[in-house]
Amino acid sequence: MIILAIESSCDDTSVAILQDKKLLANVVSSQVAFHNKYGGVMPELASRLHVEKITYVIKEAIATAKISLEEVDYIAFTQGPGLIGSLHVGMQAAKTLALLYEKPLVPIHHLAGHIYANRLNQEFQFPMLALVVSGGHTEFVYMENELKFKIIGSTLDDAVGEAYDKVARVLDLGYPGGPIIDKLAHQGNPIYPLPLPKNDRSFDFSYSGLKSAVINLIHKLEQRHESYKKEDIAASFQKVATDILIQKTERVLKQIPVRMIAIAGGVAANQALREKMQNLIDKKFKNVALSVPSLSLCGDNAAMIGMCAYYRILQNHDNAPLDISALATYSIEKF
After folding, report:
1. Is the CATH code 3.30.420.40 the one for domain 2-115+297-316?
2. What is the arithmetic mean of pLDDT over 20-37?
């Protein structure tokens, strides 16, 4: 089975080719350089750049995989969530290829894709828990079995990745803020006390207050004409931002038995989070396996969409066949 997958939910144009679970190509065209001067993603610019890049990325993926479009069996694409204009470009490219080559379409939920990026490294063990952390999402997803998702906790406002970007903007560090702050934090000391956001018994998150606390801290230091190091601000913010993720994860694992926990999404690349999560598992949950995606698969990419599509196709073989009209919307809870 050969799957061509397209991901265009935000500011990366990506096309991957998979033969069953073997990744033959995963081409990603990044738009970071274009959006950097704005301090964040400009939706209209993102969709225009997807239009410019999508054909070239498809051709490069096909060439890298050393196959022809006629050999493709299924065409998968990100249906949502994401930027409407960006998603539309990827969907139209997928529909066009499906119509031209008479291939079935497989729409994939973006967050399901992020979770299944881990499947490119190791097999899942069910039941499992996924901590999805990205620029737009922070949530716990419980999976009782293959492709069975249930959100048991989510952010009430800003996502953790969004908070990283906003703090980076205040510190004039550039975009995207996550990797910049992560690197800077390892050079500083967490000397400034910041409140743990939504430190309660729920499985939900809230990062708006932490972001505001950092902004207020900087304003107070500047008003008092006190010098400060950006490295120390970054370290203080990152400590609290990751501590609450670990505390909430520990709370979930104590209440819901699972065999594996997977970190998924762009913030899964954060070294502090990886180290703290490994430490938590080693010390308190030795019977729970930890799955983290390769650094190259943490951000938006089509390989994760193709991997999720592979398991959806396998699951669907006993049901009605997928076809090019299979575009019904669905949520991750109902997938």
Report:
1. yes
2. 90
